[in-house]
Amino acid sequence: MSERLNIGMIGLGKMGLIRYKELLKHPYTYVTHGADPNEAHFAEYHGVECSTDSPHVLESDVDCIMIATPNRYTPDLVIAALDAGKHVFSEKPPGCSVDDIERIIEAEKRNPGLKLKFGFNHRYHAGIQEAKRIIDSGRLGRILWMRGVYGKAGGEGFEDSWRSDKDMSGSGILLDQGIHMLDLFRYFSGDFTEVKSMVSTAYWDIPMEDNAFALLRDEQGTVAMLHSSSTQWNHKFSLEIYCSDGLLSVNGILSSTRSYGDETISVARRQFDEGFDSGKPQIETIYFDTDPSWELEVENFVDSVLHDKAIVSGTSEDALKVMELVFKIYNDDR
Q: Are 243 and 140 in contact (CB under 8 A)?
């Protein structure tokens, strides 16, 4: 393959535009074709042949297709792109159900020469990357338990958006945003086998959940607690990891609006030494002022395609495991 990738994009809205701007920066990617039912989006994609029909992209001579569509359409488009011989980068989630990602994996298996990556970009945030390095170093010992809170306020127009349409999205805040926190739980600790949950529609007039509370436990006894919410009137991201020799927390996550606050890591070793208050250890705080996640995700995908490297993060297996976890949470609270 040449050192140039022609890229097609299906879904040219908010997420598509974020990806497009990153692709423009990359020296070896060229966006040539795009598709979206809303022609108003076309003006942002300079020099791109745009259409309202996805076959315009699927049947083109592009090397890769990036998919940023509502959940209902994602699995069929991913499958069609793979079967058309294209490498695929798709936004999360991979559909509305576990069956959707299982169908995608079947298409991936019958096209073994193609790369498939899903956009779980939180793994690439600078704070998360540094937290992963600290945990993997063993400096804080083994993980005992984790607590994750990820919440947003909903806001004006929330009830009328496609994310609040069950036919389009499949489910509510857990599948839309909480899935990121579940993916991070897996990133740090692996798979969870036991799930207890309470899922509710507490405020919004929508046919799916606006809050999900879950307790997860893996085979080693590590417990993770999750609260995913669209009634978090003050936006919040918090991932706490308590280990045998200390603690680590990632607070805030950089976004385009900065509504989740500064992205920081706080790290401390437990202190049982004489002369120290054991409940007030010395805490080191690290601040991050840039978000490299979008760039790093694109770079990983392009490098995998150009140099035939395996997708390391955001694999179909990652997508399957986290979707199974999402629906275990739904199914536990009937």
A: yes
